[in-house]
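Hi all, long-time lurker, first post. I run a small reading group and we've been trying to get comfortable going from sequence to structure in the token notation. Rather than ask abstract questions, I figured I'd post a concrete chain and ask someone more experienced to write out its structure so we can walk through it together at our next meeting. Sequence below, copied exactly:
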Amino acid sequence: MPSSSVPSDRSSRPGGTARFWFGVGRVVGSRTGLVAAVTAIVTVALGLGLTRLEFTTGQENYLNADSQVAKDNVAYQDLFGGQAMITLFTTKPDADLVDLFTAANVKKFRDLSATLEKDPRIESVITPLTALQFTANLVTSSDGQIINSAAGKILLAAQQRDPDPKSQAVRLADSLRTLERANAIPEDQRTFDDPAWVDFLLHDNSGGIRKSLQSFFPTDKNAQMIVRLTGNASIKEEGKGATTVENAMNGLTFDNADVMTTGAAVLLRDINDYLRGGFLTLGGISLLIMAALLLVAFAVRWRLLPLAVVGIGLVWAFGLAGYLDIPLSVVTIAGMPVLLGVGIDFAVQLHSRVQEEAQLDRAREPVAAALGHLMPALALATVAGVIAFLALEFSEVPMIRDFGVLLAIGLPVIVLATVLLSTASLGFRERRSPTAPKDASRGALGHTVVWLGSLPRLAAIPLVVIAAGIFAGGLVVEGDLKVQTDPEKWVNQNSQVVHDIQYLKAQTGSSSELGIFIQSDDIFDDRTVKFVHDLAYQQLDEHPKELLTASSLVTTVSFLMEVPNTTLLAPTGKDIRLAYDVTPEPIRKSTVDIDGKALNLIFRTGPGALEERAVVVNDIRDTVTPPEGIRATPSGLAVVGTGLLENFEKNRVELTYFALIGVFIILLLRHLNIVRAVVSVVPVLIAVGLTAIISRLAGFELSPLTAVGGPLVIALCTEFTTLIVMRHIEERQRGRDPLAATEEAAARTGVAFMVSALAAVIGIVVLAFSSLPLLRDFGLVVALNVGVALLSALIVLPPLLLWADERGWVYRGPQLVPAGTGSAAPLPASVVPTAPAPASAAPASTARASAAPAAVVPAAAAPADDAVGPSADPGAGGTVEPATGDTAKPTAGGTAES
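-- Answer (accepted) --
Happy to help. Here is the structure in token form:
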């Protein structure tokens, strides 16, 4: 019998898409020098893009630039400045607020104002002295008579306007008491050096802190200096402004008081600084752990190659991100370990397949054969992953959309680097030092994967039902998961800035603010002033826990006129003009913009979650109806936070649906077989639903990053299922029956699956080393999700695949291997024509491999969509390749033995 009757023991060259990849592998694998030169050039070119990466923590990460909230906040900061830096003065146990105004302290307050106001990054400086100076200006007149001061005129006019005679009498008595207290202090002693004058300015007739001063003196033991930074500054400039304030306060001591400086700008600056250092730190930790994993678990030659390859791929990916101006935020920085983990996953799969082809000695060109066999599956997994990541583009939160773009661009770039560099490197290795033949399919990891997928085929239908139930259950509990959107909770809770903010809250009951800017054609007319007055009192009355104090030019006069047991009167436009004329410039900048025809109303907010603040903000938007020609717009830090909350909650759950639908469509278009597509997504449904249920049962508090992990889980689980399904089809094309194909695929891919999955988990779980809870929780939760996805794919998919394939729904072609044998019989020459054997080929009579019956259905009868892996090698005569278990090997004497 001619030698052609014995099937070739070499891996065949593929047809269709796989043929293209075989050709790529052959070309790239044989041109190592050229690939190295191109790699160096591309790496340098894209590496320069790393210098263009921008780290951002501003409102552009949370609010869409074209949203009304963002536009309003830009307008607000243009009018009245940006973030507030707060310096808290806490008097000693044996001192009170009057003792804060010693001669030395007063000088320091004045020097601070003069120094800070010179900095272009600072809009205004209001010290406790500035606040008291405003009160002093209100009660001081050019002739020394308090009754002729702005306050005196305002109070007299209020008494005359009061419609209730009894109320008028009470007002008169209160004014006389005020006059008596003031006249007790000689005119020449009415300076801040006199404790009696300070006491008069600070306290009302009942002995309490004047209501108009409570924003600056929130308690009997505390005073605040508020430094307003320049509005709409970049995070870099805002951070420098915060540092300027901190530096000005460092080393300063005040008589009778302890001092602490903090603010939202410090928090955002620290996050930004962490991103710059943490970006490299997380990368270094990831590389170390990956290296340890590959050294211990990946028993192949050149086992660290995937790490080097993906390292270069990361440079390409993030360099390209720099050129595309994709910003790095607290969310997008997580893309680095995610892409590292997913990249290592793909690189290990390719490296392992090359090792398999070389060890089994069934391919003359193991690198090209590996690429031809594996790349159709990896390409499909890559496209599916990109589609899943692009689902994040439907998010209303800009930084989440940036995260999706970064992953969608980074994944194919890393896959490209993996294909080029792994193929070139391993091709060079195999030419110089070929891998010795060995069958490593029956190792511990291979047996583990086979065991995991050993559920009986009867479990298929129950598994589908369970998958649907788990997915539905996940959707139900998804809405109950708590989402933490307060940036203060995203950072290290043991950091100094968090400690300072918590101290500020404990001392004053507040650390944030809600601003409302009111615009009118005439900000000093009675109608506008009354509206601001009514708005302040109404909100303080309706939200006493959420809104602690109100501060504006109008409320300063309103509180001045407020006398217990009298009619509540609104100031007039004339009253506000009188007050404005004596207002210190720093307070003017914070409360009135003449050119912009705007007034500022600032509420100090009480402690509470963003959800509670959102209720207040929405209530103001829904219930406040300004008179015609007047506009009231909530803005400031609280509104930005509630805007993030609203944007995030709009379609958070839907992102998972979009990713799932997109991936299913891609699988259906690729396979043109609905059963394969459905079977591939069943484990994905379980993974998505189960992760939500586990998170709910464990009481996890999700961050914006953690809560959108659904598309990431879908991408990774789809990769696992795609590789399993495609390898199953490849083994069926080799002639194995469904059970043999399932077992062989599991055994052959066991090491690659376990190592690559661990790599993906490690790449993400490394975020658990972050000091930011936002990243740490994401690392832990998503690593858990990936683990669930892997187990779901390895346990659920094999019995489903086997059950469907036995009914002819997955693959239709020749069955040449008896069930459970794990090997394929060689095909006779009558199946597919072969090329003449080389002269040195061994005679067929010396082959101990049994020939299959001539009546076997030709491989060509299989549907075109089944041509995933090679079944014929045109270059070798078109023979269908044998199964790996019975690969024919040339012996020393030239004969072939199985």
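A couple of things your group might point at:
Confidence is low (pLDDT under 50) at residues 1-15, 816-898.
The radius of gyration is 37 Å.
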